[in-house]
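Sequence in, structure out. Go.
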Amino acid sequence: MHIFTQLFLLALGLGLLIQAWLLWRHRQHVSAHQDQVPAAFADAISLDEHQKAARYTLARVKAAGFELVSGALLLLFWTLGGGLEWLHQAWSSSGLSTLLTGTAFILSSFFIMGLLDIPVSAWRTFSLEARFGFNRTTPRRFTIDLLTQTGLMFLIGLPLIWVLLWIMGSVGSLWWLAAWAVWMAFTLLMTWAYPTFIAPLFNKFEPLADAELQDRIQQLLTRCGFSSSGIFVMDGSQRSSHGNAYFTGLGKNKRIVFFDTLLESLSADEMEAVLAHELGHFKRKHVLKRMLTMALTSLIGLALLGWLSQQDWFYSALGMQQTSDAAALLLFLMVTPVFTQFLQPLSSWLMRRQEFEADDYAVEQTSPEAMIQALVKLYRENASTLTPDPLYSAYHDSHPPAPIRVRHIAAST
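Output:
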């Protein structure tokens, strides 16, 4: 067995053990604290609501455990089990050009992986989410969403993959620099186009109709020196009762989007606080930092791929006898997360720190009371547990646990 195969199996197995242990800790911790609401939330969240959040969390933990094991088994099937090798040989014997063969190989792999994910996605939507009263998606809408996503994958993915494979085969040893430039241009284009051309394929976006709230938001934007192409309400209730708010777009094409479910549950003061938090990410340059981090990591990743694609052992150690640019690209995309998963705690720590900074900015622009009230309502409406296991949360969560976050905001007064 090649040493890289051994490293791959070791990283996969170690990751499985760590994730299983963290899930076990999380389940034990949530179960042990489900019969008492944390003191800081006792006046705002009932015991029934707290226990519902615990049951919802435990159900998601169980589902995550299944997906953890099934995902590892599927990865082994595709690589060492010969799944990718078989599909690669099938397309290689089709008589198409090398470029078209590689493009078809990658797209068909993604398509099959998507098909295999449908049962799990459907179970999450129509069983788990429905059991706790969150799902509002109909089978028809679920199917239309899948077809739309598949169409977008082919419409957008085909030319992108074709261009990347052409660069890999035609530019020379430094092809990865040209591929990185194309990838960055594509990312910026998609970020700019998403709010206007892609998101409306899945949801309806209407301008905010509440004149008073719109005026308050506009005053907040003016105070913060932020401009956008509009404030919109998204029909999130068509799929789920979960609430959220976000910014999307790039440059003058930025949009502020509220889920309609959020408008139903939060007061004007609380909405303003939530928006101020999102503005904090822009004002503290978190969005720019994340884009720069993504640019740097993708450059390093493509440089590594440029070297690995020239090593015969990279293919054979992962179950492929034939070598090609398409095989190298797909293997790299599938296997890299096995090794980079151990960086997740660092990523989570950095993102939680940014959440604290955004909370600080929101408090400066609005009030700590409004921010705390909004957070409590969001945790309650989304059935988010108030008592996650500390180690599980530190490893996975991009947002601080509710008690820590509320305590941080309260201390800023």
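Check: The chain is about 70% helix and 5% strand. Residues 1-413 form one domain.
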